[in-house]
Design goal:
single chain, mainly alpha, 2 strands, 2 domains
């Protein structure tokens, strides 16, 4: 899948075509394909803007979280990542092409689109960070509906990354149970525990309970039913919640009908 990489120098826009195909030194041979892909990216980015605009939140970090989710959902809906035309080794170039279009705010026809500039970091990071911190995380977040993802991480990208970087607890069923656990807390507890400094001990405790390798790693979260996983996660997280954000409510695992 040849991609078009936009550039701007001295207020002048230009583009080059990049591909891993054997004739990569003659990328212009594939410009027609790259131009077609560029138009598909336009549609994907417009969809991401529309998805993000549907959500009203005043808090800056939550707005950034919503945009990260929206980019992931729009990417999934577009089918670009699943395309049979995406050759091995070209995904990083695709991320770079999308990020450059966002940073410059440029459509396939060269016209300006400022709304895209809010979707990705203002400073374009290296391709590895783009993959890890923007697109891969966005695709991962969108596996849940936005409200559930927001509940699981308190609308914080930092919190989401703490779970994402710990592969054994990255699964959707852990995130769904985590959202359920937070939802059953008192609002004041939830606000306290979703602050990144307080969320980190939760992530670490879950990673200790479900290690990726070594002792205790044989039974992973995917091997549990939803109810059994919820019970296990309550056992792990309830004591931390009681320490960091005390409440008069009994532990949900001790008294499941209490609603925390």
């Amino acid at each position: 899948m040849p991609v078009k990489i936009w550039n701007r120098a001295d207020s002048t826009l230009s583009s080059v075509v990049e591909t891993v195909r054997p004739a990569s030194l003659r990328g212009e041979l594939f410009r027609a394909e790259a131009e077609a892909l560029d138009r598909e990216i336009d549609e994907m980015l417009d969809r991401a803007v529309a998805l993000a605009a549907d959500v009203k939140t005043a808090e800056a970090e939550q707005r950034a979280f919503v945009k990260r989710w929206a980019v992931g959902r729009a990417l999934m809906e577009s089918g670009l990542v699943q395309s049979k035309h995406l050759d091995p080794g070209e995904q990083m170039s695709l991320w770079q092409a999308i990020a450059r279009k966002c940073r410059l705010g440029v459509r396939a026809d060269g016209s300006s689109e400022k709304a895209w500039q809010e979707l990705t970091p203002n400073r374009e990071p290296d391709p590895t960070r783009l993959e890890r911190d923007v697109f891969a995380v966005g695709l991962w977040l969108q596996e849940q509906e936005l409200a559930t993802a927001m509940m699981a991480f308190g609308g914080s990208r930092t919190n989401a990354r703490e779970i994402y970087r710990r592969g054994a607890i990255r699964t959707k069923n852990v995130r769904d149970v985590l959202a359920r656990w937070f939802e059953e807390l008192e609002p004041s507890q939830r606000l306290t525990l979703t602050k990144p400094g307080n969320f980190l001990p939760l992530a670490r405790a879950l990673a200790t309970r479900f290690p990726g390798r070594g002792p205790g790693s044989a039974k992973r979260p995917v091997h549990y039913s939803d109810e059994d996983l919820y019970a296990e996660i309550c056992k792990v997280l309830d004591p931390i919640a009681d320490e960091l954000a005390p409440s008069g409510a009994e532990s949900a695992i001790e008294n499941p009908k209490s609603g925390r």
